[in-house]
Amino acid sequence: MAETGRPLLDAPIPLATIRLMEQSEPAVRQPAGREIQPAIQEHHPPATTNRLLWRYLPALVVLILVVVGLSRFAPELIRSRFETFVTIFLGILIEALPFLLAGSIVSGFIEVYINKELLFRFIPRRALPAAFVGAILGFAFPVCECGVVPVTRRLYGKGLPLSVGVAFLLAAPVVNPIVLLSTYAAFGFGPVLWGRFLLTIFIAFSVGLIFTLSSPADILLPATTHEHHHAPAGGRMARIWQVLVLSGDDFMDMGRYLIVGSMLAAGMQTFISQSTLLALGSGPVTSVLAMMVLAFVLSVCSTVDAFLALSFVNTFTTGSILSFLVFGPMVDIKSSLMFLGVFRRRTVAYLILLPFLMALLFGVFINLNINW
């Protein structure tokens, strides 16, 4: 029996049988008790980016045709308004895209290099100190209102507490070294500088505390709370490539909200005259409302808005200037739409209304009671 079995064992195995055996056995063998990391095999971020490109390619073609048609064949009045719209839209979009790209790259680094243990090592467990840490976290992640949204979404995927993320989302566009220097360059060291930072921290801290009363399932979109594991098995270059791939996904995903928000902001600036809003700048209440609406409509990046506010110093009250500098970076048209990629719609309404009401109250109080 042994002699008859040995030739069978020594006989060559057909190639088709070898391929069938390779397909049937597991691709990765791990010791018992050790978790398999299938992120690279199962997750294909480039496919996501390609799907987004093909999904919006027809809309882009239609948009190009509309632009060409209106610029060539529309009446003079419509053509001039349309040219104004396109100019404003491109100005807002070109100003915001580099900061969205920077925020997307930061979110990619967070996903690959930061784990839950490292994150919770620096985040307090109690509500009060946790919300305060979120309000000053912008010094660790210096991003503007466009870049802060993908960073916040990625941190939520890592298990960041809800109050910390809300406080960081609202405060980071102001409470960071870049905006600190630009505000100092515009207004010097005075009440506008430290008033802007103190009011921003207080409002973001307060709104963050309010959201501790809710559960993440009621506030965040399901895709935000789902944690993805993207730990590359390779070396340094494999990790860097993974960062770039994830950054591209975030950039494409949040870019659609940025484009629509920029179009809305450009449309409102085209059809709503700024002189109409500036005419309301005399009263202690109407001046604050006018500047806050102006900040929401203009959607100016927080790194340069101090110089724009400086041009209104001789026209508007100090309280309205502070409201402009505090509320505008927290919430504007483009960032409000980007919030929809992280939060539920009702939550986005709260994220707009709560900072608006608090900034309005502080601005009116300063105008009526403090002579700055």
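the 2nd protein, sequnce then structure:
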Amino acid sequence: MAFLQADKTYTANGVTVKEYLLTEHNPNKIDMPGKRVKPLLGITIHNTDTIKVNGTTMSEQYTRATLNGNMKTVRVHFYVDEVEAWQGLPLDWQGWHSTDGGGDGNTATIAIEVIGDSAKAEENAARLTAWLLDKFGLDTSAVFTHTYWLNVRDGKGSGLDKNARCTLPHPYKVCPIWIIPHWGVFLNAVEGFRGKASGSVAASQGAKEAAQDSKVWGVCRWCSSKAEAEALKNILGEGFTIVSKKG
């Protein structure tokens, strides 16, 4: 099958997003979720494996694989790689991605699949997540892991706060596998990318608490310079040391 041609291209907080909605393109009549009935609760973050591509991007190929029926019953709103994002579902639609059936993960959150263990793909996902939070008037307390919804489904960690439950391992799956080890840092990156149009970089208390709980402060994967690392340190507040991988 030829590469997909996006119906629309837009920029979301510095990320190129190519829109190719499976609600408009479904020649193979794959099963599809319906429009969201519940109020939007937030964003669910996933990881999926890198794939070999030639002449295209991984996010386009994953979207094309969904169109062809090769992703089985997985339906997500966005695939994000190091280059761009592809949007396959309208933002007012449910998805099939959280393994919780009719639970809130599938029915009330927007799904972002981050492709591979890549700092740039994570940055793009953090930027896109921040853009969605701003768009829908949410904050970082509305960002979840796939594993969170598995734990909710099975009643695991019911006495824990949200972010502890997001990172609590589940025997079925730990997802996003490459982001969970530094979940608090990811949330702070999201917060740092919020409100760019107005220049706002103030971190929410929820994001700070999540980062404190994670105890992962060694490396800022999204910082390209010491200056950017210091800027993130200012967001986090006193008492944190951020070291850029790139110096």
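Residues 8-180 form a domain with the Lysozyme-like fold (CATH 3.40.80.10). The two ends are 43 Å apart (CA to CA).
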